């Protein structure tokens, strides 16, 4: 955070200089907090119910140092507050040095002794609280290697997927499915591993960075508190249960992935701890408030389209349950009783819930094959354009068929409509389907287009034969019957291609 340091010299001895500095801290612009033998710490005047910058005064021999530092996570000191504070402190020091009387010096020295004792007392209290916090949360001498490992795996998977074409900013859902996202038709038809792999897949760099920041923030507290075995168990179990919740909630096709279900699980575990007396109240209340705000904000944000809030809720609820089980185990451990069965219980219950759901919510091979077929189509860049062309052909044929089947039209009117509207419609449909040859689509799509093209050609012949029948051309009726037979065969062939 921004800071500024300025030095100046003085001819007075150390204790008198400290008394003068104490007088400066008593002025309206500053406020003293702590004092040592040759150092004093305070802050500039409060603004908007918030302490100003921290001011440190230090004297070594005849050299004094004044440092002003911002303490509220500021990134820049645009208004140069630190420099102004230092200059103001030095100016007041030098002015008081020339005007202070011996009685004020004596009074300030007495006040300094009291402040030094208060500082020692406060330091002892802070040390005791720190010991209590460390004993409860196991922060000292611990590490968060599991958290780092999970973050590294997520980043490596993201890089590999980006190389494979998943997209860095705008995701390619097909690649995410190929790499193991949670898709019901595949997960519930045998790809149960997707319940696990989807926790390491992210839809774009923003999704990844936000999740990894949240994981790091909670991992700093929770991994030392739980220990590595409980921590990784909570992460995996809540992540899998979040995936199950997502499958249960989404009745339609959903492509779900991300570490947020497992991360919400960890926040649920920590929230459970913070609602007990396992963590000292001096830090519990502030942490409970910040964790609660995080959970509420992200659940509300998750109401927007495209966010799998069901996975968040599933992770959170399962995390709360696991968290309360863990608190019982840790409290008993502090009393000398080890509940070694808690961890296996968490794992077994999570597996039973997973097995129970996946075994009673199976999806048929037909739906699985349709999904795999869609994935095969989506590999090609022009598949969306093919769908556009094919739908255009479907739309174009209907007006022509309506004309040909209209029994209310007089003969001459029908002939005119077939020749001027129906037959041109079949020509346009053939032109649209002919464009498929230029598209980057798979062979099955091209076979569908060829079957449709054959069908359109025969429909046009049928329309021309109908005109001949209406004009009473000899032999036209037999020709029309033969063409209609071919149309039915072509229609069946086209339907068969669409099924495959």
Summarize the structure.
By secondary structure, this protein is α+β, with helices and mostly antiparallel strands.
List its salient traits.
500 residues; alpha+beta; five-stranded antiparallel sheet; two-stranded antiparallel sheet; 18 helices; 7 strands; elongated
- Mind describing the biggest β-sheet? 5 strands, antiparallel
Tell me the strand percentage band: 5-15%
| Structural class assignment | alpha+beta
Low-confidence segments: none
How are the strands ordered across the major sheet?
A: 1-5-4-3-2
Mean pLDDT: 87
How does the overall form come out from the CA principal axes? elongated
Rg calc: 38 Å
Number of helices: 18
- Following the backbone from N to C, one meets helices and strands in this order, namely EHEEEEHHHHEHHHHEHHHHHHHHH
State the total count of DSSP E strands. Answer: 7
Describe this structure in words.
- It is a single chain.
- By secondary structure, the protein is of the alpha+beta class.
- It has 18 helices and seven strands.
- Strands 1-5-4-3-2 form a five-stranded antiparallel β-sheet.
- A hairpin with a 2-residue loop joins strand 4 (54-60) and strand 5 (63-69).
- Helix 1 crosses helix 2 and helix 8 (205-226) runs parallel beside helix 10 (260-274).
């Amino acid at each position: 955070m921004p800071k500024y340091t300025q030095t100046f010299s003085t001819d007075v001895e150390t204790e008198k200089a400290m008394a003068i500095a104490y007088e400066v801290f008593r002025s309206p612009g500053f406020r003293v907090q702590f004092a040592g033998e040759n150092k004093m710490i305070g802050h500039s005047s409060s603004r908007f119910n918030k302490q100003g910058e921290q001011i440190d005064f230090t004297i070594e021999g005849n050299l004094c140092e004044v440092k002003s530092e911002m303490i509220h996570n500021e990134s820049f000191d645009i208004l140069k507050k630190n420099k102004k504070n230092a200059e103001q402190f030095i100016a007041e020091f030098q002015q008081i040095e020339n005007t202070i009387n011996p009685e004020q010096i004596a009074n300030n020295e007495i006040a300094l002794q009291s402040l030094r004792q208060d500082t020692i007392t406060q330091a002892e209290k802070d040390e005791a609280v720190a010991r209590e916090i460390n004993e409860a949360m196991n922060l000292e001498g611990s590490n968060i290697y599991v958290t780092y490992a999970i973050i590294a795996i997520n980043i490596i998977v993201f890089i590999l997927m980006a190389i494979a074409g998943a997209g860095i900013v705008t995701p390619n859902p097909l690649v995410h499915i190929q790499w193991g996202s949670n898709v019901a038709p595949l997960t519930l038809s045998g790809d149960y591993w997707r319940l696990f792999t989807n926790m390491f897949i992210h839809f774009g760099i923003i999704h990844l960075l936000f999740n990894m920041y949240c994981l790091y923030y909670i991992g700093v507290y929770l991994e030392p508190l739980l220990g590595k075995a409980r921590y990784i168990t909570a992460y995996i179990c809540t992540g899998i249960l979040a995936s199950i919740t997502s499958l249960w909630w989404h009745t339609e096709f959903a492509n779900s992935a991300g570490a947020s279900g497992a991360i919400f699980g960890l926040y649920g575990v920590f929230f459970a701890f913070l609602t007990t007396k396992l963590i000292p109240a001096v830090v519990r209340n502030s942490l409970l408030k910040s964790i609660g705000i995080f959970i509420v904000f992200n659940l509300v944000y998750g109401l927007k389209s495209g966010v799998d809030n069901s996975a968040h809720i599933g992770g959170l609820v399962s995390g709360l349950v696991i968290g309360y089980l863990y608190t019982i185990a840790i409290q008993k451990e502090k009393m000398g009783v080890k509940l070694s069965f808690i961890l296996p219980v968490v794992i077994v219950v999570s597996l039973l819930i997973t097995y129970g759901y996946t075994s009673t919510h199976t999806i048929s091979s037909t739906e699985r094959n349709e999904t795999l077929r869609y994935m095969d189509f989506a590999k090609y860049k022009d598949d969306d354009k093919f769908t556009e062309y094919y739908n255009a052909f479907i739309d174009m044929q209907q007006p022509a068929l309506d004309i040909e089947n209209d029994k209310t039209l007089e003969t001459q009117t029908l002939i005119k409509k077939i020749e001027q509207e129906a037959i041109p419609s079949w020509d346009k449909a053939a032109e649209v389907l002919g464009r498929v040859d230029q598209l980057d689509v798979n062979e099955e799509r091209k076979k569908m287009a060829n079957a449709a093209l054959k069908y359109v050609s025969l429909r046009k012949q049928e329309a021309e034969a109908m005109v001949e029948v209406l004009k009473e051309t000899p032999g036209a009726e037999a020709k029309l019957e033969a063409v209609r037979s071919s149309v039915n065969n072509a229609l069946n062939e086209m339907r068969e291609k669409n099924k495959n």
